[in-house]
Amino acid sequence: MNTQAKKKRGRPSKKEMLQIHGKEENNNKKQPSSLDEILGETLSIYTATSSEQYRGQLAEMNITDLQSHAYKIGLVPTPDRKVLTDRLVQEFIKWNSRYGSNVATGNVKSINDLDSQAQKILREGA
Q1: 1, 33, 50, 71: which has the highest count of C-beta atoms within 10 A?
Q2: Which of 40, 33, 38, 43 is nearest to 74 (CA)?
Q3: What Å distances lie between residue 63 and 3, 35, 85, 92, CA to CA?
């Protein structure tokens, strides 16, 4: 008969067990502040920052591209190019009035356009 003590082969102790619960432990993570951050998508479906620029982009598209773009935005595509373009521009203006403050406008001044005191203040950080 074997006189040596046998090792226990039962369950591991609670200290040895790791529990996976699917929750992220890092609480320092930045909380989402907008719907696009929650969904992991961007709400910015437009690459233009002004209605004139958007009209230029639409003018370069063919009717199939316009209809596909309208579908992505949530509009019912129509076969008439003028009607579809007008609806797309109208929808862009609505979107821009809601979310346009989060989109960079093209009106950024260069540092050389500022007065000398503002230039001095801005250059202190560089």
Answers
A1: 50
A2: 43
A3: 88, 31, 10, 18
Planar angle of CA 39, 40, 41, nearest 5 degrees: 90
Question: Ramachandran region of residue 49, left (φ > 0), alpha (ψ -120 to 50) or beta?
Answer: alpha
Angstrom distance (rounded) from CA 117 to CA 67: 51
Q: What's the pTM? A: 0.48
pLDDT of residue 24: 64
Q: What is the DSSP letter of 114?
A: S
Q: What local confidence, expressed as pLDDT, does residue 105 receive?
A: 44
Distance, C-alpha 112 to centroid of its chain: 32
Buried b (16+ CB within 10 A) or exposed e, 24-46: eeeeeeeeeeeeeeeeeeeeeeb
31 pLDDT higher than 60: yes
State the sign of the Cα–Cα–Cα–Cα dihedral 20, 25, 29, 35. positive
- Residue 101 to residues 11, 81, 84, 87, Cα–Cα distance (Å): 59, 29, 26, 22
Q: How high is the pLDDT of residue 120?
A: 81
